[in-house]
Design a protein that fits this description.
Elements lengths: L4 H11 L3 E4 L5 E5 L4 H10 L6 E5 L5 H12 L3 E5 L4 E5 L10 H4 L9 H8 L1 E4 L13 H9 L3 E5 L2 E5 L7 E3 L5 H12 L4 E5 L5 H12 L3 E3 L5 E5 L7 E4 L4 H13 L3 E5 L3 H13 L3 E5 L2 E5 L9 E2 L8 H12 L3 E7 L9 H6 L3 E7 L7 E8 L7 E3 L3 H13 L3 E5 L2 H6 L3 H7 L3 E4 L7
Parallel strand pairs: 2-14, 3-13, 9-10, 17-18, 21-22
Antiparallel strand pairs: 1-22, 1-23, 3-5, 4-5, 6-8, 7-8, 10-12, 11-12, 14-16, 15-16, 18-20, 19-20
Helix pairs in contact: 2-3, 2-8, 5-7, 6-7, 7-8, 9-10, 9-11, 9-13, 11-13
Bound molecules: uridine-diphosphate-2(N-acetylglucosaminyl) butyric acid.
The site of uridine-diphosphate-2(N-acetylglucosaminyl) butyric acid has 27 residues, from helix 2, helix 6, helix 7, helix 11 and helix 13.
Length: 447
């Protein structure tokens, strides 16, 4: 048989890794929630603050943890990943370089938080802008301004960003917006600074509270965690620690939504209920049933699914990350729902992909002259979704499309599956064990 250029192109496309989802199965059973990505990555960065061993138990086995491990190794740390026991141990006895390898720094957004520990320990770091999901502008001006307030000289040029300080000095730092990674980077930097640092308008996300408590167990003196004002009294040195990573509230929300959207009933094991409150309240409002006890939560679809409005805000507001996973549910609800995305201007782009599956979603942007106030979606439901080929744009949108695929007629084929590897441990198996029909034509990234 002769092979035409066209068929070569077609064959190449067929070989592309796809996640195939056959919709129609109601999910039932129990699923164990892994440790939180956005907590574990920062705790790994915190291990650079001490020469002693830092052990993370319940660490999620995801590609982003591997990227962070590689970055720490590049700085000279020994990192041991025990996949079987979800454990990562780091010993940063000696830092061998202060220039971050660009490919490792650009692999995630979380990489930016190593700037804090590196300035605290070595007094310098040079790096490029971090990478991560393309969900809107992701500047680091608040991180850098915070370091400058603490006496750091920052130079930005074609070689990236160089930050240098003889010894960080405690300072009062006001953040225009409670940046998640900004708060973490500055909080970590101030643990070893001379004097007291006060971060005003700090982020109160649960991962930051957990990280602050871990730093305190390492010998730091941090107070005000979970409030908008965090105070850090600098200390001489920090020691090693063994910690258990908090449950991933964003992963838990995903399986809760999967239960409701498919008309099923799922028990989430190992969750921390207060972190899930914005999600569970919205699920209840939409008509789902929710019970929790002793770190377990049962989610059951109710008799009807009603449209509810959502706006994303910093914690304890509704998480922007769960906006992407909640919208598929709203396509199945009766009525018109409005979703205001207030954190990231481009975080509704994936709704075009949902549109290809038959969703009726109309997006509008608010703000003038480039200023961003909100991007909003009006979701008309219920709509019949049809399986088709759709593309992941980032971690959460990838999972959003899988959730839609669980209720779509026929087969949904998801491309750019690596986004899921970055943030969700054992995703396909966990869903299939609940009764879903997913097939990954490739290999998940090796951790
Ligand atoms: N912002 C600035 N200047 C800054 C920093 C942020 O203007 O210096 C703005 C951003 O443009 C954005 C808003 O502040 O509009 C929020 O950004 P933030 O810095 O709080 O987010 P982040 O630290 O980059 C983390 C998580 C995200 C999560 C957000 C919001 C990590 C590694 N990432 O990002 O998680 O959506 O906080 O909670 O912790 C994900 O897990 O998929 C993910 C994207």
């Amino acid at each position: 048989m002769s092979v035409s250029p066209e068929s070569t192109i077609a064959d190449t496309a067929v070989e592309e890794r796809l996640l195939k989802i056959r919709g129609g199965n109601a999910l039932h059973g129990e699923v164990r929630i892994s440790g939180a990505k956005n907590a574990a990555l920062k705790a790994l960065a915190a291990s650079l603050l001490t020469t002693e061993e830092v052990v993370l138990n319940n660490a999620p086995m995801i590609a982003d943890v591997l990227s962070m491990a590689e970055l720490l190794r590049a700085f000279g740390a020994e990192v041991d990943i025990d996949k079987e026991h979800d454990r990562v141990a780091v010993r940063a006895t000696e830092i061998v370089r202060t220039d971050a390898p660009p490919h490792l720094f650009k692999a995630t957004r979380a990489s930016v938080v190593v700037t804090g520990p590196m300035l605290a320990r070595e007094g310098e770091i040079s790096f490029y802008m971090p990478g991560g999901d393309q969900i809107g502008k992701r500047p680091i001006d608040m991180h850098l301004r915070g370091f400058q307030r603490m006496g750091t000289e920052i130079i930005r040029n074609a070689e990236g960003i160089q930050a240098r300080v003889a010894k960080l000095q405690g300072a009062r730092i006001y953040m225009d917006y409670p940046s998640h990674t900004g708060t973490e980077a500055i909080m970590m930097a101030s643990t070893l600074a001379a004097g007291t640092t006060v971060i005003v308008n700090a982020s109160a996300e649960p991962e930051i509270v957990w990280l602050g408590n871990m730093l305190n167990r390492m010998g730091a003196r941090i107070s005000g965690l979970g409030s908008p004002i965090i105070t850090v009294e600098g200390v001489e040195r920090l020691r090693g620690v063994s910690e258990i990573v908090i449950p991933d509230r964003l992963e838990a929300a995903t399986y809760a939504i999967a239960a409701v959207i498919t008309g099923g009933e799922v028990t989430l094991q190992r969750i921390f209920e207060p972190h899930l409150l914005p999600i569970t309240e919205k699920l209840l409002e939409a008509g789902a049933e929710v019970w929790h006890r002793d770190g377990r939560m049962l989610i059951r679809a109710g008799k009807e699914l009603r449209s509810v409005d959502v706006q994303t805000l910093p914690f304890p507001g509704f998480p922007t990350d769960s906006q992407s996973t909640f919208v598929p549910l709203l396509t199945q609800a009766t009525g018109v729902a409005t979703v205001h995305e207030r954190v990231y201007e481009d975080r509704l782009r994936y709704t075009d992909e949902l549109g290809k599956m038959g969703a009726d979603i109309r997006v509008a942007r608010f703000g003038e002259k480039g200023e961003f106030l909100a991007t909003s979606a009006e979701i008309h439901g219920p709509t019949r979704l049809r399986g088709t080929r759709v593309a992941s744009l980032d971690i959460r949108s990838a999972v959003s499309l899988v959730l839609a695929g669980l209720v779509a007629e026929g087969e949904t084929q998801l491309t750019d599956v690596y986004h899921i590897d970055r943030g969700y441990a054992d995703f396909v198996n966990k869903l299939n064990e609940l009764g879903a029909d997913l097939m990954d034509t490739g290999e998940p990234a090796k951790v």
